[in-house]
Amino acid sequence: MNPSVLSGILLTIFSYFLFSLQDAAVKWLVVGLPVFQILFVRSITIFALCLVVGRSAVVRKSIASPVLKPMFIRNLLLLAAWLSYYTAARDLGLAELTTLYYASPILITILAVPILKEHVPPLRWIAVVVGFAGVMVACDPLGAGMTLNTPVLLALQAAVFWAIGTVLLRKTALMEVTLVQMTLSSGFFILFTCVPMAIYWVQPTLLDLGLMAGTGIIAGIAQYALFEGMRRAPVSVLAPFEYSSLVWAFLLGFAIWGDIPGAQVFAGAALIISAGMIIIAGERFSRRLRDS
User: Fold this and answer.
1) Helix (H) or strand (E) segment spanning residue 218
2) 37 burial class (0-12, 13-18, 19+ CB within 10 angstroms)?
3) Residue 144 in this model has a pLDDT that exceeds 60
């Protein structure tokens, strides 16, 4: 396999593991704190980390960056995605929420063709379908009895916004260094959330503050890994590996809340892992053909 593509895959898997940790922390926090407040503290933490690493130079580069406008649009989409997702999480069970949200990798693969002009081989389409089938098996949505209602529509809306935002990230990732993108992303989130955060502010405990700041540190590392992964591999290659976060979610659910996955979860996880293996095997095979 192309070393760049392989490193992109590994960085993507690592980033979604960290994002799963972030989701676990936010699920804990959102019970007593507004989503805007959590996102604000998280963004402040990431922005501070960027300043520590890049200092004043990263601010100057961010102001003059050619991706300023697309990053603004992308972060509006991400804000809408997270607000939709965490609002739906108040009413939907894990099986329903996860199944609906994981329409995103399929949308990413579809959008990569007209927007990024990527050629998507049949094996990548197969991997996306196999991965989504794994999510369906693991979450057992038919057993949960989903009906079309506002929370379901919000979860689907989050998947659409996240897919478009991810495709835009691939375009900006090729035009700007990761640290500048992270500075812009966290800066825009501070701008977007500061006013509603002040309006709906709830006095947090020291534990809440620590969790929110920790979420920012975890999310900052996850963003760096995700951005670097997008720079190294086509988005249609990386899309199925978003399914790996389902495995992390169930493991964290067991470790933190004592949730015990059923047999269908392990069957679904096997399909999800198979989707990743299909991508890796396809990339290795195509590289051998090019080198022969």
Assistant:
1) helix 206-232
2) buried
3) no
